[in-house]
Write a structure and sequence with these properties.
The structure is a single chain. With 273 residues, the protein is an alpha+beta fold. The chain folds into 2 domains: 4-69, Alpha-Beta Plaits (2-Layer Sandwich); 92-254, NADH Oxidase, CATH 3.40.109.10. It contains 11 helices and 8 strands. Strand 2 (26-28) and strand 3 (35-37) form a beta hairpin. Helix 5 (104-114) packs across helix 9 (197-211) and helix 6 (134-154) packs across helix 10 (223-231). The longest helix has 21 residues, at 134-154. The chain is elongated, with a radius of gyration of 23 Å.
Amino acid sequence: MSAVIIDTDKCKKDKLCVLECPMKIITLNSDTGIPETVHNAENMCLNCGHCIAVCPYGALSLTSMKVEECHSVAPNWNPGIETIGNYFKARRSIRRFKNKTVEKEILEKLIEITAYAPTGHNSQTVEYLIFTDKEIIKELTLHVINWMREMLNNAPDIGKSMHFDMITRAWALGVDVVMHNAPVVIIAHGKKNNPNTATSCAIALTHLELIAPALGLGSCWAGYFTWCAMTYPPLRKALSIPDCNGIYGTIMTGYPMAKYYRIPKRKALVEWR
């Protein structure tokens, strides 16, 4: 937890930090008008940085986060609804990747930006496991295939409804329709005992998938892999993720083989009340 530090020389007493603090731990001193924290604030602070972000004068810091460490927001940070709308709509789930290594610097930038995705109570519980070795990815995929074969034997109705029969036959012919020979696999996991973790992981990977095209990457959710990792001990063991952590999502990514020129139609199901 953290405590708020006020630079009284910079403070203009505009109350913005008081109004914006989500935990309401900042108040005004009735005599000076300078912001101050309530009793036990250090144990209630979320370390979200709202107070730092909203102050135009850089008058606030946290013990865990100095104002000097926080970048200024670019004046043109919002590209407008036309640009952002086209960007979101043009996103495609990519399942064909170039046989090209994704540079570690690109993946580091992808994760660095993704870290700013919202997490419940600013818990920041999302942990990432990233595979870039194609042979290891193939070995992990084989666990999924073995799981599918077991499902076809033990729960054939479920297996066939999810096309496990066709997927395993394709694998036998040398065609990977589980991970699509992706050069990079990114798994989001985190502590099971934190109720925010599952949702935070899903939000994080959703952000990651939307950030990826800006770095020249394409991506796709690997639902079969996640399902298997959550339920199949051999894959879980191969991943070497701590037992206290849950696996909540998997993304495959790489440089896309194809370029897309149109935006297929979609519909939103809405009930107004």
